[in-house]
Amino acid sequence: MLILARRGTRQDPARTHPRRPAGRDSWCPRRHHRPTRAGRGAGHLQRKVPSDGVVMVAHQRIRVGRTYAGKIVTIHAEDTRFRVICDGAEVSIHPRTTQHPIRRWITKIHAPRI
Question: Does the global pTM surpass 0.85?
């Protein structure tokens, strides 16, 4: 028996939108589904290290260190690990704990204010 209520309530979760089915695979107009690069983690990306020394890659926090705050690091993403490189030297290696694809390869790295 279906309880008549507003759309999207707990009584009727399948009716979140009148023309689209609910669920993880349903289409969402806000999400921009772009094809990712070959493989789950093939390639390298760049991040600017903030003052706390932690950068985010694929929904995973990578602790680079406050020593590198303000510098641009290159992160080589592999299937099982992330390698962090700054000024040509390897800073650290972090195991990849999430299965999320990398969607942002180069972030907006702003120039310092003068």
Answer: no
